[in-house]
Amino acid sequence: MKALTVHHLSPDLSGVSLIDAPMPVRQPGQVLVRVRATSLNFPDLLMTRGEYQFKPQPPFVLGLELAGEVVEADADSPLPIGTRVMGGGKGGCMADFAALDPSALRPIPDSLSFHHAAALGAAYGTAYTALVEIGGLKTGDWVLVHGATGGVGLAAADLAKSLGARVIATTGSPAKLEALKAACDPDAAILASGRFREAVAEITGGHLCDLVYDPVGGDVFDESTRCVAFGGKLLVIGFAGGRIADISTNIPLIKGFSVVGVRAGEYARRFPERGTAVRQAMLALAAEGKLHPHIDRVLPIERWREAFDAMAARGIVGKVVLEL
Ligand SMILES: NC(=O)c1ccc[n+]([C@@H]2O[C@H](COP(=O)([O-])OP(=O)(O)OC[C@H]3O[C@@H](n4cnc5c(N)ncnc54)[C@H](OP(=O)(O)O)[C@@H]3O)[C@@H](O)[C@H]2O)c1
After folding, report:
1. Segments forming the whole domain that contains residue 242
2. Residue 118 falls within a domain, yes or no?
3. Among residues 133, 47, 135, 38, which one has the least CA distance to residue 87?
């Protein structure tokens, strides 16, 4: 079977290739999934370089999420043969087949295609965990979403709008401002460069933001500490910008806000009942047509390099789906 494999860690994808790999061996209780679509997440790129917090030893198969159908299962499996499923784990999804525990998968709602199912889980799961579970999002809240042209950012902007919040979406790329407005219909879209606090204050009538969702970090995080309303939360999602920011603890004290780290996958592993609730809520919204996963492009897995290069160059709005 085809499998996108990291043979050695490299800064330029030279250690990655699509190989003919042995089929995964299904353990009792697991299901074997014929993968139809997988989507690219920033951690996939970081894992090719050894820069992600989870550092498997090469060789390993890339891919954190998939959509496909069950082709082998125990007779009493909760996911019988033929079930369309979505989900994933810490790797192995960028391959023709993956063997997974049923708990890592859920049935795909009829209204979702394989492409949309592959693009939904990690991005909206992160957004839902951060904004709703940890952030306590309420109707009418002002939410500042950074990296909003990216996978987890665009999902957060879309979800917050669907849940009745007011959204200021940001990009660091002037050329993507119009595409951002078209992709998630925010209340305002601004450039996250320099002193953007003044723009946030003007848009919110001086209130500032109840929640700030930050997958970018660095200078964007620093300026965001000036954008949180009293009693609000600055949600630390990631560091796509490359620099992990420092913060003096007097700032959240004086301004009365919290800085909260979000690890959506770990949250679901540590609190399985909350993880299940998040997935159910997310899929219910998707089934009602209230989520709009934005697919930038669909490519065959053979064109994986194009997808990874586009992500590294910040050339994507939403998600890239790879077909198998
Ligand atoms: N906490 C969690 O549970 C969790 C879960 C999933 C992902 N993450 C993290 O969230 C971050 C974003 O992941 P993603 O999958 O959404 O990635 P993505 O699709 O590549 O989006 C990242 C966005 O960040 C912006 N950005 C700003 N500076 C950048 C830079 N120097 N390089 C690349 N992008 C830059 C880009 O938007 P503009 O070009 O428009 O500025 C880009 O669209 C990553 O750090 C990832 O590890 C965290």
Report:
1. 124-265
2. no
3. 38
Render pLDDT for 116-138 as a digit per residue (tens, 0 to 9): 999 999 999 999 999 999 999 99
Flag whether 206 is in a domain: yes
Mutate to test the pocket of ligand 1, among 38, 40, 41 (most ligand atoms within 8 A of CB): 41
42 CA to middle of ligand 1, Å? Answer: 6
Domain boundary among 246, 265, 284: 265
Q: Which atom of ligand 1 is nearest to the CA of 266?
A: 3
Q: What pTM was estimated for this model as a whole?
A: 0.95
Q: What is the CATH number of the domain that holds 261?
A: 3.90.180.10
Give 44-47 contacts, CB < 8 A, sequence gap 24+. 44/94, 44/308, 45/308, 45/311, 45/312, 47/6, 47/91
Domains held by the chain: number: 2
For ligand 1, residues with CB inside 6 Å are: 41-43, 122, 126, 147, 149-153, 171-173, 176, 215-216, 237-242, 262-265, 311, 314, 316
Q: What was the pLDDT predicted at 44?
A: 97
pLDDT tens readout for residues 26-67:
999 999 999 999 999 999 999 999 999 899 999 999 999 999
Task: Give me the chain's average pLDDT, please.
Answer: 96
* Both structure tokens of 324: 């198998």
Same domain, 92 and 133: no
**Ligand 1 center from residue 311 Cα (angstroms):** 9
- CA nearest ligand 1 atom 28, residue: 241
Instruction: Report the pLDDT value the prediction gives residue 125, as an integer from 0 to 100.
Output: 96
